[in-house]
Amino acid sequence: MTRLRSFLTPRWILIHLLVVVLVVVMINLSFWQFRRLDERQAFNDQVRANATAAPVSLDELLADLPDKEPKSLDEIEWRNVIVTGTFRPADEVIVLNRSQNGAAGVDPLTPLDTEVDGTPHVLMVDRGFVPLSVEVPTPPAGEIELLGRVRLSQERRLGGLTDPAEGTLTEVQRIDVERLREQMAASPDQVVLPFYVDLLESPDITAEIPTPVANPDLSEGSHLSYAIQWLIFGACAALAWVFLVRRALRR
After folding, report:
1. Distance, CA of 201 to CA of 51 (rounded, Å)
2. How far is CA 95 from the centre of its chain?
3. What gap in Å lies between CA 131 and CA 222, rounded to an integer?
4. Long-range residue pairs from 179-182, CB within 8 A, at least 24 positions apart, any chain
5. Residue 21 to residue 208: CA distance in whole angstroms
């Protein structure tokens, strides 16, 4: 009984609480990494499934999106779509702070005027990566056909730069389709599509620059190893507590 009381002093109570807090925090951090691994695997599966599906025309793609709701848009991201239209370089926007293969550069985002069921539409096309040392080339004139990869608006990362909330933009930090919607329409009756595409290839474009946007990283990252590390750290904290108690008992 005397021994037990010696472990209820303020100093020992503080040690007990500290160990419990450390173990609980580390276990939760481990579970968080496992959840991130699950999310990453689900993302990779979706990208692989959509990217390997047969390309469809823009008409076919939109036929599955009668309401163009965000939930249904998520289902078509990374799909390959074939589009025919005409670039409108006068309204091109430059996406800043891009990097690819270790080089810094920009991406030209150019509106492509097209038609769907006789209705004028405009699709924003990321034409690819242009190094800072190279001048952004003008898109080809006239009607072209291209194969693109469907992408949704890019989200601002923590600490990332923001774009002005109002006014016409010529340079942006990220591709926000909703923010650019108004300035991309050539006329009030033209429908601005709620997504953009990465240009993958086109028989009408032979220039090497812009370089097609890099494929997404489909690795699982270090989430599994981090999860195991946090479990090991939690076990070490528990073992350290056992060691302190045993040493105190021997004394």
Report:
1. 14
2. 15
3. 30
4. 180/93, 180/109, 180/124
5. 57
